[in-house]
Amino acid sequence: MTLPSTEDVVDLLTAQHKQIKELFAQLESGQGNKAELFKELVRLLAVHESAEEEAVHPVAARARFGADKMVGDRTDEENHAKRALADLYNLGVDHPDFDGKLAEFADAVIDHANREENEEFALLRQQFSVHQLERMAGSVRAAEAVAPTRPHPKTGESALANLLAGPPLAVFDRARDAVRDWRRDDDR
């Protein structure tokens, strides 16, 4: 018998931040297949940020008077990151400017993650019970299941925009990924 997960939203998102930082480190060090590592980074960041915008930021903004400014700042950082990630994706890993732009992007994303952990996640732990944080983790997982796998910065920058545009874009992204992977396997 499998017991239900007792991981809370802060643990879940902090673990994802760790994965993101590890992918940046692998890309910087040249470990592994650069294109595959970047593809995984794009997928993880797109899904992670979409889920945060839908399931975490709106709750944190209502947690305490004045928290909406902090959440607004994090959301602005995420919107800049979406555009930068889309630019990197369009540039491609073989472009001569890719590594320099990736390093700048990594610094910004890591700074953002650290601010989230120190400010927003600390607020969540202060304001919500363990049970509420565990339920929020379930909301994040549900949002991730229907989130796009690529950044779509022109679709909107709110929880509502993600809820409306996310599922159709996710289907499109996943279909495009499947076709790409099928073609790659067929070429072998």
How would you characterize this protein structure?
This protein has about 190 residues and is mostly helical. Helices cover about 80% and strands about 0% of the residues. It is built from 6 helices and no strands. The protein has helices spanning about 10-30, 35-65, 65-90, 100-125, 130-145, 160-185. Helix 2 runs antiparallel to helix 6 (about 160-185) and helix 3 runs antiparallel to helix 4 (about 100-125). The chain is elongated, with a radius of gyration of 17 Å. The chain starts with 8 loop residues before the first helix and ends with a helix. The model is unreliable at about 160-170, about 170-175 and about 180-185 (pLDDT under 50).
**What order do the SSEs take from the amino end to the carboxyl end, as H and E?**
HHHHHH
**Content of β-strand:** under 5%
Query: Which descriptor suits the 3D outline?
Result: elongated
Instruction: Quote the distance from N terminus to C terminus.
Output: 41 Å
- Which structural class matches the secondary elements? mainly alpha
